[in-house]
Amino acid sequence: MQPMYYFKQALDDIRGAKVLHGLAISTITLIFLLTGVFALVFINVSQLMTAQQDNVRMMVYLKSGLTAPELGPIQQAIEKTNRVKSAEFVSKDQALERLRQSMNNQAGLLDDLSDNPLPDAFEVVASPGEGGWQGVKMTAATIQKISGVDEVNFGQAWLEKFSMVAELSRAAAIAIGFLLMVAALSITANTIRLVLYNRRDEIKIMELVGATNGFIRASFYIQGMIQGLLGGLAALGLLALVFFIIVAGAPAQELLGRFEFQFIPIKYCILGLLLSVGVGAAGCHLSFAQFTKD
After folding, report:
1. What span, in angstroms and rounded, lies between the C-alpha atoms of 55 and 3?
2. Is 155 part of any domain?
3. Which of 54, 66, 239, 269 has the most neighbouring CB atoms within 10 Å?
4. What is the CATH number of the domain that holds 104?
5. What is the distance of C-alpha 219 from the center of its chain?
6. What is the SS3 assignment for 243-278?
7. Is 56 exposed, middle or buried, given 0-12, 13-18 or 19+ CB atoms closer than 10 A?
8. Residue 228 three-state SS
9. Is residue 134 situated within a structural domain?
């Protein structure tokens, strides 16, 4: 019977201060919505990094003057290199034709060339696996040592910058998420503290007649947990709405090939809701600590 009494008392307090609790829940919703946005960015950046690592393309440029019989051993050596999945020969004429096609209307600029300046090359597909980008570098360094290879290019500068941005975004998401949780905790604590001060005379009377701390505090803890839960549910609903209506159908998806944006996994959604409830309970605990001091 007592749990129902606590829950009813908590709902009565919320109804009695609708504006106050409404503002608190709205603010918590905004905070958890921002946290969800950072979580989405973190998840999709990590997924994109993984997708990019699955099939890394390298261009292995060959030294000039190599004969056809010399190309076979080079290709075999490349294919035997650790992490290499395939190696396809691209002649200098094929490379020039690809360049011409990629230039579209500006392809006429290539007509004035007296000689083909492009080298023969092998287009290599590698899978770094658990080695990550460090494994890609090791594979490139091994191929570079093969006789007849002039240069290995796999967008090193771009990949290093992308990795750095991914690490910075991960660190920023964690730091900002922590600050947002602290803000949500403070808002919940302040809201419950105001309710406590409004009912301080009633609380004093309950203490005088022998009511236990658990009996007095239970409904307030439930209020904080309800605030957190409603804020978390509203934030999750808004985030899902924005994601599935706007992000999932964005043209940017076509620019990323087969990569598909991922929503927050269900286990992390549940964890987020539990966290929001926990923040509500912790905020109530802080408000009681301050109320007791006063």
Report:
1. 56
2. no
3. 239
4. 3.30.70.3040
5. 37
6. HHHHHCCCCHHHHCCCCCCCCCCHHHHHHHHHHHHH
7. buried
8. helix
9. no
Residue 129 CB: number of other CB atoms within 10 A?
A: 11
Task: Please name the residues in contact with 84: beta carbons below 8 A apart, sequence gap of 6 or more.
Answer: 78, 124, 125, 126, 139, 143
DSSP 63: P
Query: What is the C-alpha to C-alpha distance for residues 172 and 177, in angstroms, rounded to an integer?
Result: 8
Q: Report the DSSP pairing between strands 84-90 and 121-126.
A: antiparallel
Same-domain pairing of 42 and 90: no
Supply φ then ψ for residue 62, to 5 degrees.
-100, 155
- CA–CA distance, 60 with 45 (Å, rounded to integer): 28
- Residues composing the chain: 294
Task: Determine the Cα–Cα distance for residues 40 and 7; give it in Å rounded to an integer.
Answer: 34
Whole-number Å distance between alpha carbons of 206 and 226 = 23
Are 259 and 43 within 8 A, CB to CB? no
Same domain? For 30 and 65 the reply is no
Say if residue 211 is in the same domain as residue 282: yes
Total domain count, the chain: 2
